[in-house]
Request: fold
Amino acid sequence: MSLARRLIAAGFSDLEKGERFLAARELEGLDQDRLFAGLQLAASPDTALQSLVRLIEKHPQLRDLAAAEPEASEPLYRVLGASEALGEFLIRHPEHLDAFRVRASPEPLPADPDRLRAKLLQSVGADPRAARPVAAVTGVDAYAALRTAYRRGLVDLAVKDLCAADPLDFLPSVGRELADLAAAAIEAALAVSRAEAAGQFGAPDVVDVGLAVIGMGKCGARELNYISDVDVIYVVDAGSLDDAHANTIGTALASGISRAISSVAREPGLWEVDANLRPEGKSGPLVRTLASHEMYYARWAESWEFQALLKARAMAGDAALGRQYEEAVAPLIWNSAGREGFVESVQAMRRRVTEHIPPAEEQRQIKLGRGGLRDVEFTVQLLQLVHGKADESLRRRDTTSAIAALSAGGYIGRSDAAAFDNAYRYLRLLEHRIQLFQLRRTHLMPVAEPALRSLAKAVLGPFSNERPGPDALLSAWHRTKRSVRELHERIFYRPLLNTAAKLSTEDAKLTPEAAQGRLAALGYRDPQGAMRHIEALTAGVSRRAALQRQLLPILLDWLAEGVDPDAGLLAFRRVSEALGTTHWYLGMLRDSNAAAERLCHMLSNSRLIADLLEVSPESVAWLGQDKDLVPVGFEAQWQEITAKMSRHADPESAMRLIRLIRRREILRIAIADSAGLLDQDQVGRALADTDRAAVLGALRVAEGIVSAGGPLKTTVLVVAMGRQGGREIGYGSDADVMYVHRALPGFTEAEAQEQATRLVAKVSSLLTQPLKPAIMAERVLQMDADLRPEGKNGAMVRSLDSFAEYYRRWSLIWEAQALLRARPMAGDDGLAADFLDLIDPIRYPASVSDQDVREIRRIKARVESERLPRGADPARHLKLGRGGLSDVEWLVQLLQLQHAGKHPELRTTSTLEALSAAAGLGLLDDADAVLLADAWRLASRIRSANVIWSGKASDLLPSSRRDLEAVARWCGYEPGRAAALEEDYLRVSRRARAVFERVFYGQ
Reply:
């Protein structure tokens, strides 16, 4: 066999480099067959060969082991092929090559923690038998000795790990030994720190101070990675000293530990010692007494801090003090599920599964993301916290033991537990092998093909002769991630369903109390009610019940991600009952994950959508196809209304159909908005089209009613005003309008006026009056004509000539300002054109007097002082408050009055279009225009979100945290970022107000 083919068969990636290193003088005379037999054992024979040559150069005695029988050389080749970093360590310290002169064991024994501790302490000249060991060496010499001894321990462990017959089976032992080795290193670092502190504080005082190091996270759970930050908390005991002096010494000791472990020295640092999980985090003191810890946890700690204590373990330092700490915090951990804020903390835990993942890393993450390690840990820890208060058997720190305990206690089905445990071990094994190669803290799947090939080999046991390719590795990894997601849903919810449906099953089944506790932990405020809904959905032997039992685990999970999962589950039950056994509904839920998830998120985040879907359940079908969520334009709506009116001559029947179409289209727009298919401008235009079609339909019905008693004597035009005129409305908007009429030939002005008055009254009545049976969940369209000439004191409807006369003789500047948003909405097209011809010179004057400008400013100031509701916070009022909608709109309208006569670009009813035009003309700085647009958009979005979330209109930025969270999500913020919305709105509105005052008032 040629050398190239031999290299390929051995698994080499770089044949040219392989040939070059094989020809190195260090390997001259070695038995090639035995050399290749050893290299074939290596995950990366390329790396093993290069490290071997460099090691023999430093330590020629290694040649005999390199050419030994595979049974003897296996540890050497497996470690050098799996860890470039450990190879580098041994090149620096060839005195530790004796680590390879051991017989590999397929079932290795774990190292004794006490022996590890003794070895590390002895490396710095400390007595392991001393109550508080003190090192004989300090400074960089001590740091180098400690780190070298630690890495020798890593080599010993890597030999056992890489030679174990079943890497998955041995994995928990690896995590435990890594944690024990880290604890031994911290113990030795503390001994060095004591010796260094003695020079500053005196040996008697230093020895008098007790310091317990509490391991947290993976180190506390004894499931540590090869390279990871070690999370700790420090507890100090003052002994005979006063607390202040003892805390000073304790802080010096803790700082000395970090220095010995990770400061710059000739032997590289090991890892970071992270004390940020301590009370008050980075802002708190580095060390505290036990009493201070107890006081903090009793008075100020947040829920997440108790959950973090689930892993707390005394790992180094004063053992008795550490045990006291463990005993003090244990009750706090298991009572945390009943604390206020627990649900919010759980939701934060869920978010940490996927947050902070850079887009470039999203597809490579082993730890974070859906189906990653953190997903497993979240599920297990949450079940422990929910059920561990009543069942002490669940009080385990490490994940694999916790899974076994949950299974033994009946909280997880046996088969699911076995699959979950296997998936977790596989993901941890991938993480271990990736980190071991360069001893770098990473959780990313490599992308280079040689690295993937090495990893694929590294995760196999020593009895496998396979060398799988990258595709096989990635396929197994992706299968595992999918399995973790499916298992999360099955593990958490399946026992609930078994309980609710009262099924006879050999699988996990919970007591009612345990089931309710599980639901409460995920945010269901009425777990008893939730269980009733689940029971109603799943009970029985029907196909629908069977399918719901299959689907509900994931549906309940999606509902729990919403702000109000209780309301979402109730709405889901009502929709499901309304649709019954409809084949398309059950099929959509089963076959379209996207549609089912979209449904759950809408039902648990929007009262408006939930209410509308409950009375229009057939609209759920839209969720399966985005094309069904495209808003229906005005022309298409009007065509449908015309067709229905032709078949329903009865006015009440016709109006019922018109109002039902409007309700349907509002729902369609809201769902499309929720799905991110529409931007804010498109929503405003779509809602305006829907209102326009309904108003035009009402006008035609009103004309039919009036004409039934005699001929029509006038034509009526409905003119949209305000935000309706700008087509910038939200879900809670009324219709600001004016009514214009013109007498038909042969009828007097008086006759026409009387009929027009009856017509417009009928239009308003038709759109708002209750119908029998009632139209459920309808958002009635209120017609508001207060912007008409003379306001509430003026005639409800005027003729075109009356408008002309009024504007010629008595019009005030505020009425010209109001006309800036006037847009014909419904009625006679000829009358609409003539009305626009009438008002254009008024709203777009050639000039505006200084007196008129002063009047506009006076009215604006009066509106701010008089119309703001009593007790309302101006900073939080979206319409009339500081930097709110009113500020932006009044500023834009003043610029239009002043300049639209000369600049046609400003002749628009849209606030944002006019704002953009003003900036284009240089009337506003571009930065100011962008700021004002941002403030206006955000305030508008929040107003709509208030309606979407609660079903009720509100002009206030919510102060309730729950309401604010719901509004923030609708505005596009990530879950848990409600405070960011609040900060953003208060900041942008404050800055918008500054621009408003500078431009509007000329300040």
